[in-house]
């Protein structure tokens, strides 16, 4: 918006006039005839004369804010030219006419038609007068008509306030409007608050007030809109109705700390039209045309209204007008607007000196004393006001408020009712009476008065809020939510409403919803401590501990002595196992509030967790000093002495706790534990049975009691006790559960499942039964049912590391890796030392090919368990995926060091050495493997391959033949025996083993090829051709080798043309095959095609036909099982 400067600088404005005045006369023949308001900083308009006609001249300073004096800001110039253009093009009787516009130095000047006064002048002229209904309606409609026209052009009002609106012969003239622009709410709020009553330059709607506390929110820009104009129009009309500028009241109206007061200076129906402007929710503000229509109806019904007014009339008492008094009042109200109540009182008292009968002034003095808490002078002043005018309702209202502050409820109600009697539209008095009855606990009467206030003023948000408070106190949360929600709809900028509504959702355990309202409260509220703490509580309940910590820390920044914030922060640190930080916060809470026995108690628990038992004992004893019969602290003392191994001492405190509360089941159980530690089994059994009697569903004493029976060889008694010993008419879920546990340990899964299901039937919320039933399903590989039971158990008792781990395993076997990973991670989060969870998470990462993460998990599991050979083995195979052979070998050897019989590691390490061509080390590994697995065909195969690579053919043949006896259908073994005999130049045996491989697998390509190769070497050309054709029929990716060998066979067989065809096929497949060029050269020689021969030989002049067989033979090794 085009806000002008908000700080008066009269000397600067005077200098502006001097700069402008000379050039105006020189270049425009314009004479300034009145610049007083401009020079005083009360207007940007001066009165001028040109050719004997008077005009207004608007002065816009174009001085750049960042450049040296006299430099024009181009953006300001563009804005000024746009304003002049908009005024010139807006042909409306209530928009001022633009005569001309031009620039002089760094000023832009807009010459406009003459207007005799501003609306501010009119208000001053009419103060202390009852406003003429017809005049008020006429002026209001003109303002609305002009605004409607401006809005129809897509424009908005600028700096809409009485000082910027002109009047000429009872006609409104608006001169500030334009395109909607961004404003900074933080800056605008600051300027709005800085304004003084004598110079109100603009109004600020509640949606543009800055309630934020952080720098980021304060820097956000917002766009001014037409709904904002409606609020400002309402403010302007309200000032007209009052015929005075009570800036303090207008500010409080925007902030929502005061509500619309019905003005006696205008009629009731007009009051209700004005009331509609002041809706805090801008979306609900009425359309301008609707307000125009409302004023039209008021105008048409004027005669009828005057008749009806007889029953709605109220007395309007005018005090005599006195300029000196008015000036003093202006000064007093200005001080009051600046919250300088003492200075205001002095000015009001000077008014009294001039007019001792000014009852309004006495009331104003009383209100100032009320604000500063001077009850004696406040009460005296209100009484004096009433003495002077017994019909002045507002004095009764304020006196009622004063009596309420003094705790004199009946006198307060009496005066407030008198205010209502004099002014039945006094919504404030209805509200105040309702609040007093609320304080007295008379809810129905309070609600009735709050509803009366709402009936008078439907936008009285605080009344809605108080009704919500009553329903909240009555634990009628749904009703409370309805009323709090209405309050928020009326005033979206009042933080306490959001806080109250948030509390309702919090009490209903709807923490997400509650959190949203608490966050809004923090945005809007000045009571930030409660807003932050309440957000922290929501985050705690949502298990978002880090976010909760942030909120409590914010609360502590605002108020370092807020004990609850420190206490709650300590609770979170405890949950996060940050015991030292927890203790530190408990200590601060105690320092701030030494009577906090709960802080001492919880600090004792934190010390106990750190096994600092002496400090824990002292903390518990401090809690007991404050609260003598603090049973939990006494009991925990017993627990601490138990953990110190001082069982006799623990029994002393357990006895005290039991005397205070014999029904405390944990005391009975813990007493049994102490007796059991002292080997006093009969006493222990007695106390366990007491615990079970108090709570037949308490599982721990069952377990201890059964363990004692078993330890003493009394298993039958244990079973007897489970079935009959409790004395219940029928078995409960705990009995069924432990019967299931016994059967599970005996691996009788069906029977165990039956008992677990019976336990669940008795108690569907028995988490342990669901967990163990899921374990049974898992053992039976019924993974779907296992997951279902585990998830039920997790819902019943979240955050169990073992349960999360089991879910991870089960999802893994269902091949749902993301779910498996999620549950493993949760298990680790709950138990950072969960070795198996890290290991299995590593397996998931491995299968996702996220090898670096997998290695980290395996190493973490090994770090937690240095004897975990599988962790080393899996680390090794994962490094293999990263081609890091050195780490592969290191971790494999470490696995073998831990477990010398680790079969898989031997297999894998042997393959690593083979891959590195370190066959000597591979041989040692495979020999060890065969020692461990003498009849394992894969172990024998890999050993044979290694012998073969080392050219230890006899040893290889021996091992392969042993493997052949175990499995005569192992193709690769048969094939490699053929290779060995080929190397030994025993082609006949070689062909036999290749043929055996083909008997097992007729499509074994290499066997066909190598048989052809043997025939080639032995010059058995037809047989060779037949074999290589079988190879080519399989259409392998290495068909070119087949055609090359076939070409050689044809060449040997003197079938030159067929040989050439084969070589050409090879060339077509692989054009750069130089060997083929050489052979083609020889063939072309034979056919006397010398030119072609020369070309072929030129491509490759080096050729060694003896390499053919060598190049075609190779070892086909498989890795075996890893």
UniProtKB/TrEMBL annotation:
PROSITE patterns assigned to the protein according to its UniProt record, in alphabetical order: PROTEIN_KINASE_DOM, TPR, TPR_REGION
TPR repeats: 325-358, 359-392, 393-426, 427-460, 461-494, 495-528, 529-562, 563-596, 597-630, 631-664, 665-698, 733-766, 767-800, 801-834, 835-868, 903-936, 937-970, 971-1004, 1040-1073
SUPFAM superfamilies: HCP-like (SSF81901), Protein kinase-like (PK-like) (SSF56112), TPR-like (SSF48452)
Domain Protein kinase: 32-302
One function term, GO molecular function aspect: ATP binding
Signal peptide residue numbers: none
InterPro entries tied to this protein: Kinase-like_dom_sf, Prot_kinase_dom, Sel1-like, TPR-like_helical_dom_sf, TPR_rpt, Ycf3
Keywords recorded for this protein, A-Z: Repeat, TPR repeat
Presence of the UniProt keyword Ligase in the record: no
PANTHER family with a match to the protein in the record: TETRATRICOPEPTIDE REPEAT PROTEIN 6, UDP-N-ACETYLGLUCOSAMINE--PEPTIDE N-ACETYLGLUCOSAMINYLTRANSFERASE SPINDLY-RELATED
Official protein name in the record: Tetratricopeptide repeat protein
Top-level taxonomy: Eukaryota, Sar, Alveolata, Ciliophora, Intramacronucleata
């Amino acid at each position: 918006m085009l806000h002008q400067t908000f700080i008066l600088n009269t000397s600067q404005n005077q200098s502006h006039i001097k700069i402008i005045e000379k050039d105006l006369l020189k270049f425009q023949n314009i004479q300034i005839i009145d610049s007083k308001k401009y020079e005083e900083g009360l207007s940007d308009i001066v009165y001028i004369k040109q050719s004997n006609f008077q005009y207004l001249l608007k002065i816009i300073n174009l001085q750049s804010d960042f450049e040296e004096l006299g430099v024009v800001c181009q953006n300001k110039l563009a804005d000024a030219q746009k304003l002049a253009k908009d005024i010139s093009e807006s042909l409306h009787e209530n928009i001022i006419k633009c005569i001309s516009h031009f620039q002089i130095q760094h000023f832009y000047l807009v010459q406009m038609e003459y207007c005799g006064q501003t609306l501010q002048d009119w208000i001053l002229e009419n103060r202390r007068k009852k406003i003429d209904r017809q005049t008020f309606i006429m002026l209001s409609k003109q303002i609305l008509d002009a605004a409607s026209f401006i809005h129809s052009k897509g424009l908005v009002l600028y700096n809409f306030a009485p000082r910027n609106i002109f009047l000429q012969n009872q006609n409104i003239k608006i001169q500030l409007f334009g395109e909607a622009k961004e404003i900074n709410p933080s800056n605008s709020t600051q300027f709005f608050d800085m304004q003084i009553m004598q110079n109100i330059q603009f109004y600020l709607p509640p949606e543009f007030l800055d309630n934020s506390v952080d720098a980021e929110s304060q820097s956000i820009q917002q766009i001014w809109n037409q709904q904002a104009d409606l609020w400002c129009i309402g403010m302007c009309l309200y000032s007209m109705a009052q015929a005075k500028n009570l800036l303090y009241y207008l500010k409080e109206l925007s902030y929502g700390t005061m509500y619309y007061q019905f003005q006696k200076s205008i009629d009731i129906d007009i009051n209700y039209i004005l009331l509609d402007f002041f809706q805090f929710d801008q979306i609900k503000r009425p359309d301008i045309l609707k307000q125009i229509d409302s004023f039209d109806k008021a105008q048409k019904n004027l005669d009828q209204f005057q008749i009806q007014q007889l029953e709605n009339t109220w007395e309007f008492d005018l005090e005599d007008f006195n300029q000196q008094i008015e000036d003093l009042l202006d000064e007093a109200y200005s001080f009051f607007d600046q919250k300088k109540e003492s200075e205001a009182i002095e000015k009001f008292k000077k008014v009294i000196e001039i007019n001792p009968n000014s009852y309004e002034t006495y009331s104003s003095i009383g209100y100032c004393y009320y604000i500063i808490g001077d009850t004696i002078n406040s009460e005296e002043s209100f009484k004096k006001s009433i003495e002077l005018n017994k019909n002045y309702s507002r004095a009764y209202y304020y006196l009622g408020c004063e009596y309420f502050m003094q705790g004199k409820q009946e006198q307060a109600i009496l005066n407030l009712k008198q205010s209502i009697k004099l002014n039945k539209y006094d919504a404030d008095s209805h509200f105040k009476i309702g609040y007093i009855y609320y304080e007295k606990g008379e809810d129905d009467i309070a609600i009735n008065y709050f509803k009366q206030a709402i009936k008078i003023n439907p936008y009285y948000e605080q009344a809605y809020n108080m009704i919500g408070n009553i329903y909240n106190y009555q634990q009628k949360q749904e009703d409370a939510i309805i009323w709090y929600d209405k309050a928020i709809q009326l005033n979206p900028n009042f933080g306490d409403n959001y806080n109250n509504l948030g509390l309702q959702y919090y009490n209903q355990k709807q923490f997400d919803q509650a959190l949203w309202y608490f966050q809004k409260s923090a945005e809007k509220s000045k009571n930030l401590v409660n807003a932050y703490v309440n957000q922290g509580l929501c985050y705690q309940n949502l298990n978002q501990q880090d976010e909760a910590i942030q909120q409590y820390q914010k609360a502590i920044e605002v108020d370092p002595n807020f004990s609850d914030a420190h206490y709650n922060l300590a609770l979170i640190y405890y949950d996060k196992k940050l015991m030292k930080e927890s203790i530190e916060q408990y200590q601060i809470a105690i320092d701030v509030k030494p009577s906090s026995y709960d802080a001492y108690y919880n600090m004792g628990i934190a010390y106990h967790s750190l096994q600092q038992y002496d400090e824990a004992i002292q903390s518990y004893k401090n809690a007991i000093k404050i609260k003598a019969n603090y049973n939990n602290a006494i009991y925990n003392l017993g627990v601490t002495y138990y953990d110190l191994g001082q069982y006799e001492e623990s029994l002393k405190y357990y006895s005290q706790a039991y005397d205070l509360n014999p029904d405390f089941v944990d005391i009975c159980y813990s007493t049994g534990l102490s007796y059991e530690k002292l080997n006093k089994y009969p006493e222990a059994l007695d106390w366990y049975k007491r615990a079970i009697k108090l709570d037949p569903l308490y599982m721990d004493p069952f377990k201890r009691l059964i363990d004692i029976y078993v330890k003493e060889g009394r298993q039958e008694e244990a079973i007897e006790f489970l079935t009959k010993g409790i004395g219940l008419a029928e078995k409960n879920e705990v009995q069924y559960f432990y019967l299931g546990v016994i059967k599970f340990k005996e691996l009788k899964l069906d029977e165990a499942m039956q008992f677990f299901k019976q336990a669940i039937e008795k108690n569907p919320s028995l988490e342990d039964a669901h967990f163990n039933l899921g374990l049974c399903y898992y053992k039976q590989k019924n993974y779907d049912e296992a997951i279902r039971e585990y998830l039920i158990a997790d819902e019943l008792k979240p955050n169990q590391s073992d349960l999360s781990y089991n879910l991870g395993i089960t999802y893994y076997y269902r091949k749902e890796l993301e779910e498996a990973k999620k549950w493993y991670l949760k298990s680790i989060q709950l138990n950072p030392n969960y070795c198996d969870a890290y290991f299995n998470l590593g397996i998931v990462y491995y299968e996702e090919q996220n090898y670096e993460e997998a290695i980290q998990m395996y190493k973490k599991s090994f770090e937690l368990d240095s004897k975990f050979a599988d962790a080393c083995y899996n680390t090794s195979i994962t490094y293999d995926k990263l081609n890091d052979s050195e780490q592969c070998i290191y971790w494999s050897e470490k696995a073998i060091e831990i477990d010398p019989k680790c079969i898989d590691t031997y297999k894998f390490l042997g393959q690593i050495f083979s891959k590195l061509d370190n066959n000597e080390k591979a041989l040692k590994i495979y020999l060890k493997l065969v020692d461990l697995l003498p009849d394992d065909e894969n172990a024998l195969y890999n050993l044979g391959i290694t012998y073969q690579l080392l050219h230890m053919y006899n040893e290889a043949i021996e091992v392969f033949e042993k493997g052949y006896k175990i499995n005569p259908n192992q193709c690769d073994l048969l094939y490699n025996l053929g290779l060995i005999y080929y190397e030994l130049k025993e082609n006949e045996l070689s062909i036999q083993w290749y043929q055996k491989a083909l008997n097992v697998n007729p499509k074994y390509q290499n066997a066909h090829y190598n048989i052809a190769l043997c025939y080639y070497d032995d010059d058995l050309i037809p047989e060779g051709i037949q074999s290589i054709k079988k190879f080519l029929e399989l259409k392998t990716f290495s068909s070119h080798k087949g055609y090359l060998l076939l070409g050689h066979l044809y060449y040997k067989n003197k079938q030159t043309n067929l040989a050439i065809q084969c070589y050409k096929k090879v060339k077509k497949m692989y054009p750069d095959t130089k060997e083929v060029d050489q052979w083609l050269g020889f063939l072309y020689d034979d056919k006397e095609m010398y030119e072609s021969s020369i070309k072929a030989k030129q491509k490759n002049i080096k050729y060694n036909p003896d390499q053919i067989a060598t190049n075609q033979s190779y070892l086909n090794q498989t890795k075996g099982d890893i």
